[in-house]
Amino acid sequence: TKQSGLLAQERDVLFSLNEQSYQNLTLYVDLTNIRYSNRSTFVSITTEIQQQTAEIGRFYLPEYPSDATSHYEDISNTANYTFDICLWQKVLSETGSLKFYTDGSFDDFEMDVYFLEEKGQPSVLVNEIIPLWYSGKNGFLYEKEGIDPELIPPKSIELKNPSQKAIVQILAHGVAKSNKPDSRFYFFNINGKEVAKRSVWRDDCSYNP
User: Residue 109: is it exposed, middle or buried by C-beta count within 10 angstroms (0-12/13-18/19+)?
Assistant: First the structure.
């Protein structure tokens, strides 16, 4: 992989992949020398599909105590993230690039990006990936009545033939602005029928190391 980009908040990672020739394909992101006073809270990973932005993944950086300094030996300043991108290999072989964006600055840490490839027949041959909605880097505003429906309008989808199945990937992320246990759900409807209801918030944060 090769990193390029002049903006402090963006990095382009360029690479070459063979189309749908991997049984397993994993994206690894290793962060080192994370500054304890860093301004960055998250990193978003996107690619372009037919001139539309599609977010593949997003991760949040570790939070450090406000008085943390580099001489705190018991505080790790490294982090590792992995993403299963096997279903994305057709798109990535065509684009040959990923864009990394942080809300702070890439001067706040050092980043190493690489793939773990296992060549072979993938379990699923993907015809296409169709972007539906993208909240942008800063997300949708979630108010009392939820997200403004105009921001996530209904979409009509026509699947290519032959298609045996369709997989919908919903990447939900966010940070609560208060300590109240507010309920936040997303609902997914197909042809007017609710097929999924999920809580946006995780309930296992207390198990974080």
Answer: buried
Question: Alpha-carbon distance 59 to 72, whole Å?
Answer: 24
Residues in the chain with pLDDT values less than 70: 1-7, 36-38, 64-76, 174-183, 202-209
Distance of alpha carbon 147 from alpha carbon 170, whole angstroms: 15
- Looking at this protein, which amino acid is placed at residue 94? E
The label of the residue with tokens 């992949």 reads 17
- Looking at 37-187, list the stretches that DSSP marks H as alpha helix, in order from N- to C-terminal side: 89-95
What does the DSSP 8-state code read for residue 143? Answer: B
pTM: 0.82
Instruction: Look up tokens 């974080």; give the residue.
Output: 208
Strand locations in the chain (E): 2-4, 10-14, 22-32, 42-49, 52-60, 79-84, 97-102, 110-119, 185-190, 193-199
Give CA–CA dist 145/80, Å, rounded.
36
Distance CA 47, CA 55 (A): 7
d(CA 151, CA 117): 37
